[in-house]
Amino acid sequence: MGYTFLKKIQNHYFKKAKKEKYSARSVYKLEEINNKYQLIKNGFQVLDIGCAPGSWSQYLLKKIGNGKIVGIDIKKNVQISDKRFTFIHGNIFHIDEKFLNSNKNTFDLITSDAAPNTTGNKFVDSQNSLAIVKKVFRIAQSVLKINGSIIAKVFQGEDLKAFIDGVRKDFLKIVLFKPKSSRKESYELFIIAIKRNENIDTKY
Ligand SMILES: C[S@@+](CC[C@H](N)C(=O)[O-])C[C@H]1O[C@@H](n2cnc3c(N)ncnc32)[C@H](O)[C@@H]1O
After folding, report:
1. Phi/psi of residue 92, nearest 5 degrees
2. Among 82, 113, 117, 133, which is most exposed with the fewest C-beta within 10 angstroms?
3. Is 55 in the pocket of ligand 1 (CB under 6 A)?
4. Is residue 28 part of a domain?
5. What are the residue numbers of the active site?
6. What are the pLDDT digits (tens) for 93-150?
């Protein structure tokens, strides 16, 4: 695919996000995932990991009716003022026991668009991304409801398959999805883990 054509597509999503008042064009990846898998429902409690600047949470707010969203990010640039949205400024690797214990089996859905700062070294970047995903799944062991689901971004890398094989038994279904709105040259994918089973005690 030519560089000019790629730029055109990126520009298309950028303009669309601006017009539709979303804070980032990443929203269209979540929209595509939800159009296909219908995982966001009215009344849902959602944990949105790596939520800044906030387009996924904006989209989630449109879908959850009287549900609730907790968004977490290291960055502070989240400007959502909606009483159904709570922002936690922090690093998921430092998430405390108090949060995990007070939110036991609370969330119907965990979304994570969290990505490491990229180094340009594909191996290092995919390992760092997988470390985030493993942490997301560890958090889910405490706070995700039975039958709850996870949508998590990951960079493709050599250890991804082993991880997916390991978590497969903890969910009804696991799929890897590449949205059309994700840049073709990017090696990001989304792990869609549908309906957690009762016991998920895998050591991630
Ligand atoms: C691609 S952006 C997310 C965009 C967001 N989904 C949206 O639609 O606006 C990735 C975010 O992950 C956050 N992030 C990366 N590592 C994190 C960590 N360990 N804990 C919390 N947030 C993290 C970054 O600060 C960044 O804001």
Report:
1. -65, -20
2. 117
3. yes
4. yes
5. 153
6. 999 999 999 999 999 999 999 999 999 999 999 999 999 999 999 999 999 999 999 9
The alpha carbon torsion through 182, 93, 176, 168 (nearest 10 deg) reads -170
Per the omega criterion (within 30 degrees of 0), is the bond before 53 cis?
Answer: yes
**Residue 204 domain flag:** no
C-alpha pair distances (Å), 85 with each of 42, 48, 67, 112: 15, 10, 9, 16
User: 201 in a domain, yes or no?
Assistant: no
Instruction: Look at the pTM and tell me if it is higher than 0.90.
Output: yes
Q: Domain count for the chain, please give it.
A: 1
108: containing domain = 3-196
Q: How far is the CA of 66 from the centre of ligand 1 (A)?
A: 25
**How much distance in Å is there from the Cα of 149 to the middle of ligand 1?**
19
Residue 167 in domain: yes
CATH of the domain at 21: 3.40.50.150
Q: 105's torsion region: left (phi>0), alpha (psi -120 to 50) or beta?
A: left
Closest ligand 1 atom to Cα of 111: 6
